[in-house]
Amino acid sequence: MEMERQPHVLLFPFPAQGHIKPMLTLAQLLCHAGIHVTFLNTELNHHLLTQRQALSARFPTLHFHSISDGLPSDHPRTIAVYYQDIVASLRSKTAPLLCQFLISKKNNVDKDSAAAAAAAQLPPLGCVITDGIMCFAIDAAEEVGIPVIVLPITSACSFWCYSCIPNLIQEAQLPFEDEDMDRIVSGVPGMEGLLRRRDLPSICRMPTDHPIMQFYIKETKAITRASALILNTFDDLESSILSHLAPRFSKIYTIGPLHALLKSRIKDDDLSSSSSSAAATASLRQEDRRCMTWLDTQRLGSVIFISFGSLVKLTRVELLEFWHGLVSSGTPFLWVLRSDVLWSDEGEHMGQVIPTELEMGTKERGFIVDWVPQEEVLAHEAVGGFLTHSGWNSTLEGIWAGVSMLCWPKLADQQVNSRCVGRFAKLARNSVSESGSSYHNLQQLIQDLRNL
């Protein structure tokens, strides 16, 4: 009977590391409150998420399922290159599958006997929380008659900029009529005098009729049909922008930084077991923990940490420029250099063109890895600076750790993020304390889900 009183929520992220991580953190927070969560990944990412067992062991009410993305098995699925292919396939082929999935979970019906037995232990699905660029899930939830909440993975500032793009087009500020990227933009209320053209989301460099531009315009408009909005931010960080967003949504839950809120709600003694640690650092990529041992050998605040996230790609020229700069600085550095970081085939012969001085300089003072446990790295006392792409997850993690950030925004919302944030570590810590706004807002979200 107690189990039936708890709600059952579906979480459905866009199939990318930076989207899955905050959604999965929210899943853990909801499960910690006793809520049943079905976490729906595309089939590939479902298998890449090797921490599923550890997560389910830590949170018995967390249930993982997969759904086809509609792409051929041999498709590379590189988001930076094939974004339009992925989005088109999700909207045309995954959407009807999602509708069927929602019906089965709402009615606790499953053709597979084992799955049916498991479903019988769950209450009917009562709510969908979907990604901000997966709005076909809103259509599916509406068709099935299930309330839907949207979780964009961007900052409030960035989300507001995307929302204002139709106004910028109407006011003839988009597309840009010249190449003066420092010209002030006046069509984003609440950010007058702050935003330059170069600070707008990267899609603003596209023609207004470009398919990606049109996709974002439609997605941002569709979000307003959701019953509520969850933002991975906190009130003191973006209060002025939140006031502009408020009239568009019946409810907005600001519950960030999500990763810090999880640590706040799940006490240190609960995170001591190996399963709990794996749950807290769930990733689609294999983390190289040798970097933590290397950091232990470095002086306090001496290391610059470099990561451009899971999607940003570099040209060979850009990579070598960064590398030369890091080696020439004489400063110890830890660099996340993904195996897929270079465009097209530029990486095929990379090993043959690395200058000797870079190899020697890296051996003396650098450490290069494919992926790291970033939250732990930023919290390490040896890290004194963070060279970042300004993705919102990374930005919040940097703010929380109180590490100075050097921003190199490249795409999507990163330009806005790099312009709008500063040193807010103390405010972030206050927000996730028991008397803080994010802590309170999470409690309200949990209560509202129970009341559905």
Automatic annotation (TrEMBL):
UniProt superkingdom: Eukaryota
Keywords assigned: Transferase
Entry GO MF terms: quercetin 3-O-glucosyltransferase activity; quercetin 7-O-glucosyltransferase activity
InterPro entries noted in UniProt: UDP_glucos_trans
Pfam family, one: UDPGT
Entry's transmembrane regions: none
Presence of the UniProt keyword Transferase in the record: yes
Similarity comment: family membership: Belongs to the UDP-glycosyltransferase family.
Name by which UniProt lists this protein: Glycosyltransferase
